[in-house]
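pasting input
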Amino acid sequence: MSNLKVSITVNGERKEAEIEPRMLLVHFIREVAGLTGTHVGCDTTNCGACTVLLDGRAVKSCTVLAAQANGKKVTTIEGLSKGENKLHPVQKAFVDKHGLQCGFCTSGMIMTSFWLLNKKRKLSEEEIREAISGNLCRCTGYESIVDSIQEAERRMDESEEYIEEEIPARRGR
Amino acid sequence: MDLTEKLVSGKGNFVDDINMPGMLHLSFVRSPYARAKILRIKGGITWKDVDLKMASVGEGATKGFEYLEHPVLAKDYVGYVGQPVAAVYADSPYEAEDLAETSVEVDYEPLKAIVDPEMSLTAEPMYPGLKSNLLADKYLGADFEIKDAPVIIEDRFVNHRIATDPIEPRGIVAAYDGNRLTVWVSTQSVHSLKEGFCEIMHLEPESVRVIQTDTGGAFGLKGGIYPEYIVAAYLAMREKRPVKWIETRREHLLASRPGRGVVGKMKLYADRTGKILGIKGDVIVDSGAFAGGSGEFSARFIAMQLTGPYEIKNAYIHAMSVLTNKVPQGPYRGAGRPEAAFFIERMVDRLADELEMDPVEIRLKNATTAPYVSPTGLTVEASKPFLESAVKAMGYHDHVRKGNTGFGWFVLVPATMPGETARILVDGGTVKVWLGGNAHGQRHDLFVRSILSDELGIDPSVVEWQKGDTDQLEDGVGAWGSRSAMMGGSALVEAARKLRKEVENKYGKYSPQKLLEGKWDSYEFFHYDKPYNNLGANLITVHQDDLGVIHVRECISYYDLGKVLNMDNVIGQNAGGCAEGIGQTLYEGLMFDENGQMMTSSIADAGVVTADLVPRYKLLLHKSESSLPSRAKGLGEAPTIGTPVALARAIEVATGLRIRETPINPEYLLSAKKFH
Amino acid sequence: MMPPAFEYMAPTDVDEAIDLLNRYGDDAKILAGGQSLLPLLKSRITSIPYLISLSEVKDISYITDGKNSLKIGAMTLDADLEYSPTVRKNFPILSDALGQLADPLVRNMGTVGGNLSHGDPSNDLPSVMLALDATFKIRGKSGEREVHSRDFYMDTFVTALEHGEILTEISVPYWPAASGGAYVKFRKGTWNFSVAGVAVQLQLDNEIVKKAGIAITSMGPTALKASEAENYLKGKKLTAENVRHAAELVVAASQPSSDSYGSVEYKKEILRRISVQAIKKAQTRAEVK
């Protein structure tokens, strides 16, 4: 099988590599880009531990080929912090509201929340729960995660000092 | 950055995040049959290379089943689908998976599988030389006869097997420098693993170091040692190259140790005032095909707890652990405690219905008024005062008036014995802490900070909780069985007090400044050889919709936690456990066909709950004292015990159906009278 | 769980993709969003030597208002269709279905064309398209043809797509004023396939049903059209009795089999109930307009 040359912009940095066509995006991120904050949890597109933004949309990177992301923009958990130690309001809210226990689902949970809050505000609790229904957490029972997202929303309303993602405009008319 | 800040930034260090030059990736060839003879194996690493037997270490470990020990790699027989038969390795995980598919040939002669534990009792013995399929067989309590008991109720209950399903699967990296084996592993107990490596591979303790990586949940899964870890260590030692193995979810479902899998056959004797006169029962644990899981231990552990928080004078329980052609059973959060509560609480609710009494009234009638040791050996404090305050605090009667309410309560039996270790190292103004039990999502860092800031008067931010490392702490037990705040916490308190003394001895007076300026190292093994049980209660309200679906509306816990060391910690433990309790009751189960093939093929099929399926949780605290140095009582497993019993009852009230099984079949829920 | 090796090609236009499909014959398959195909490859249930990805074909991702119908490019993301204002306004039945399709993250990668051409009877969009009387535009070596949704689904994973053909556009006719629809799906949890799903589109004229489109999900080898129920409702008022009877006819059209999601009887009972719910919801929406 012939290798494939891909170029994917990860957190603003262009990564070029020759890869096997079958390489999953999550492995490109982890092995090629060396960013291990994106995790593999379930293998079957259920748990969302591998969630990243692909051209502004939250997707499960274990169910995307790196080849499909060729020429596109990927944002991972590592891309949310501004500078070395400056956490994004969503990250900060997860710390302050105890939105994690073991921390394994956390990257995916935060990426989905980040996507969600860039897309829409004034979310009801039901909308939040529905939005994170593709991300599994076995530790928290979700309550503190919902609290964290609500807290993040408040903080994002108040502050302009954070990375924003260009979320694609809804197409069609 | 502290641990939490690292985790929200993607800077955690989980086992799969470790990469080393020259690292090999391991993949396994597993049995496709539940029971078969192996006629021939060609290719891969096989038993000829690793002719070793697993040891039983960690939570629920039992020794002395030489005959039924789990081979690291199968030799001439496989006992469950997913049993490791051969291993292959390559430079990348993709290639390793390719090789597992293509490079090993195995010829099997399939045999008739024994799948159902109750049928196993009467089936031909699984192995030659056995008289029956009983792996453990014990009677608890004493036989009794009650002539003309006014009420006799008999019933049978099932908790199906459940995958532990932490979001991070099992995984290990092993490396060998010619003298010493070092493993990095996602675990609840580095010391149990070290013990396992030494025992199984005949290694000296000095030549093994086990280091815990960030551990992405465990729930009982990661307290013991597994065949895959031994093969990884073997290969690292043979090739002198680092070896990584990361479990796939499919492997997790098939071949890691699941919990529950217990049948309870109960018989309850009572008078017409609601006083329970005695209970008899059979506890049948689906232990799997080999010894070494927690199967043989859990039958008698469940049987011991069957008298619950009640003053039951007569009890006689037959505890049976039964061989089946499934992966050995292991502990899953609660590990025997939820089963016992489910069996006795369902019976008490049946009694209430039989006598048309309020379920709490009947519980009050049978609660203990003084400390009590039941005929099965369960130690209970006076449970009646607790129940009275629970009922009041939870607003039980108001809820009952509103309808669809279930209540359940229980004795939590934390795994106190034999205590736990702790080490405090003060150097350069920071305070590092190791506990003998290794956190896997309980956030020990929170209570460790609380304890040390209380005991030593230091700023919590200078305290750095450390992951497990056998080189940093010479011994330890493990993080399981609701024990960490009690045992680990107490060891830490004692170590801190010792430290305080040392500072005092040196400077005449203790001060945090003096402590932080110096270099100090304090170790403590807090020994504890008794049970230290506590009580808990849960209340749940539900709604059943037009399609028969149950929605949990309210989920209230009322627990006796002694001193709360850290409130965030406690709220998180309760919430997560309640979700798992709801999961067990409504969604979670591993299902097998008659050939022992698993029908559950993903974490979704296995039923791990999503955010839209669970409610908010409320935790109320029963004020009490604990006599332990940490002043804490057990918590971790409490919600997984109390939630299913309260929920099952709420569903009974809402549907008019009798709940005997978890997970509850949605089809059964649609048979409720109101739909017909 | 990683996929077996394959060759990957990403043509930039549909004709090139068709050429590649023809060149590699049975060894080739189209990759749309991959949300069904990649899990199959990862679990190694199947292997495909040549994957022809449409991800770089630019001109088949669109939602446009045509004269008589809404045109949806096959590579339109499920999420884009879900949030499309024109869909929200004119086809709430589609918004219903898309809002319950797998989970929000899968919908950000999965495509409408992929969902429709996979031929999985538990996919949600086929029954919606059947209820709406949609037409599929298919392109192959010898040109373009149109296939009505009712002629598209042949068997499980078998559609009217011949080898070397690609679904390029879905055309959903506008229904007249006083029309409305609903999709009701029953699943144990977000992560499960549905036990049953039902799509109902109604056109009313003074409380009388002028036209009905009804189809079901997860109830047989393919999505199934409940023609008898459609015909029964035509010319009738939506009285409780008529709705109940129509639901019975929907159930009669189903061919469920017993599996881990439930027995045949259970599935039929669920279908009966959600059919009533869907008809009522469609009625409310038709009346509002």
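fyi Chain A has two domains: 4-79, 89-158.
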